[in-house]
Design brief:
The chain has 119 residues and is an all-alpha fold. It has six helices and no strands.
Length: 119
């Protein structure tokens, strides 16, 4: 126990000397690098996803008759909303067929719904 007590102050002194040397080496290294490099290496780049453009909502009364209806321009929620509205009101199916044609109505509202509306 006595030998350990005599060695402990010496060990702490060596430990503090190593810490001081490491701190001085870090400071010297940081001073040797330009500020731009230090900033570039210390900050990770952040890449944000590009937001998707909002899909246009075309109503039959405002839609241009010559304009082609593209199903891919709608979000899944918009497609689902139009199908639900068409199930409740078949006039929506007829308005879509008048504006964009029957093939477009079958793609948007499904064949079964168009057949039900036509019956």
């Amino acid at each position: 126990m006595t030998a350990r007590a005599w060695a402990q102050p010496s060990e702490w002194e060596q430990y503090r000397a190593r810490k001081a040397e490491a701190k001085a080496a870090r400071a010297e290294s940081a001073a040797a690098q330009p500020d731009d490099e230090v900033l570039a290496t210390s900050v990770a780049p952040v890449v944000l996803p590009t937001p998707l453009p909002a899909a246009p909502v075309l109503e039959p009364e405002t839609a241009d008759v010559d304009q082609e209806f593209v199903l891919a321009d709608l979000t899944p929620d918009q497609v689902r909303d139009r199908r639900v509205r068409a199930m409740k009101d078949h006039q929506i199916v007829f308005d879509h067929m008048d504006s964009y044609g029957e093939p477009s109505a079958r793609r948007l509202c499904t064949n079964q719904l168009v057949n039900q509306a036509q019956d």
